Every structure is written in C-alpha cells, then in structure tokens.
Amino acid sequence: MTAHPSVRGDVAVLVPAAGMGVRLGPGAPKALRLLRGEPLLVHAVRRVAAAPSVGCIVVAAPSDAVDDVTALLGPLVASPVTTAPIVASETCGAAEPKLEASSESPLLLVVAGGASRQASVAAALAAVPAEFGIVLVHDAARALTPPELVETVADAVRGGHGAVIPVLPVVDTIKEVDNSGIVVGTVDRSVLRAVQTPQGFRRDVLTSAHAAAVDEHTDDAGMAEKIGVPVHTVPGSEAAMKITRPFDLAIAELLF
Ligand code: CTP
Ligand code: MG
Is 220 in the pocket of ligand 1 (CB under 6 A)? Predict the structure, then answer.
C-alpha cells in the first residue's frame, strides 16, 4: 500500500462499527442508530477526528453498508465539533483509497467488517497505511467518548507502553454465582476495573496479538495479554460509556 503522508498526527484509529446491536433491539445495525438525530457512528468519528494526534481513521462497517457509511461520514468535513476536514474513501485491504486527505486532515477509510468484532478490527488493521506506528481501537458504540481520552491513550503509547487501556473503578459489589444462581463468592472490588475504549497499541503489538489469537476476545488488550505484553491503564471517562441496551441510549440522549 502506498503511504499517505500525514503531518496531522501519528495515530491511526480503528473503529469497529459492523455489529448488529442485538441487545439494543430490532432495527438498523447499532452504529447507524440515531442519537439526537445522528447515527452513533457519526458522533464517534467526529470526536475521534477532533483529537489532534489522529492522522487516520479506519471504520469497519457492516459489509452491506460500506457505501452508505462512506457517504455518511464524508460530510463530517462540515462538522461543528471538529474543524479538521475529513475525506471519506472506500477501500479494502491493500486497495488504494479514491481520495486522499489533505495534510491537515485525518485520512478516513471505510472497510467491510467481519462476523465478529475481532474480525472487524483485523479487517480495519489490514487497511492502516504503513507510516502509522500507533494504533487505537475504538468502539463506535462508545459514541460520546471525548477527544481528550483519545489523546490520553495515544500519549501513553507514545510514552513507551505497548498496550494501553482506559479504565474506571467498579462501583457495584461483584459476586460469582454458580449455574443455579447461588453465590459462590464475593470478588474483591478494589482490584477490579471496568475497561473502555479507545485501547491503544504499538502497531507491532496489535498485529502480533491478532495474529496469535486463537479464540474470540471481547477486547484487543485481552489478546495483548495473551502474548505476554504488559497492559498499562489510564483513567477512563464516564462519557465513554458503551451504548449496549435501550437504557444506555436513553442515558446518552441526556448526556449532551
Ligand atoms: N462490532 C463489529 N463487528 C462485529 C461485531 C461488533 O465491528 N461483527 C463492533 C460494534 O459495531 C461495536 C463494537 O464492536 O461498535 C462493540 O460491540 P458491541 O457493543 O457488542 O456491539 P454489537 O455487536 O453491535 O451489539 P450486540 O452484541 O448487542 O449485537
Ligand atoms: Mg456484540
């Protein structure tokens, strides 16, 4: 793949957005559901693009919606949240994008996602231009994540950590139960953390972690753990909540 020089930032952000949103109930794929009149994916990409470190965004869209998503994200050039212009291009794997970003804007690529989140991330990772040495993975479902959190994670990778995750303390008491619902034990909450995205990686770490993964993981840091890479934590953000169920969408509507 030909390099796409970007003076804007040294970070590529992969945005898995190909999930169906089963837990959200019947309707369009989750990333295309509306929050305050705009798809969750638009909210998410707009905020990622507003982070100055970001030079490239690769969205993994539902496979039958690549053109729609490309058209949807192109107008973000007029976004009121980010002043950086964005150029949307459709590409897959080593194919060249139809358009290139200006030196001031993040390159935006849209690829077809896979049957699992992991497959979608792998498809997006394969499309990242060679010059990006830092890669973040960020769920479209965390639509209201502030750009500052993207910068915090990127800074930590830039500072020498191979894998970085944003975390929050666990507020509920957590109990382990058996198959019949009987409590087996109470977990020490003080050592637990709830994990968010964006998760950040040195590019070679993420590539190796995906190459080595044999089973399904719900996050990318889990794969890095499996290959023995220490995973560094940084403080997360309440606004980076994942929209999973209708209740979460209702909360997100109130967060604006
Ligand atoms: N995702 C993806 N490709 C898949 C499955 C999930 O890109 N095959 C993405 C989702 O679009 C989402 C993120 O991974 O942005 C986190 O997944 P999740 O919150 O589980 O979303 P869904 O899989 O869409 O929801 P559900 O599990 O309720 O169907
Ligand atoms: Mg899912």
Answer: no
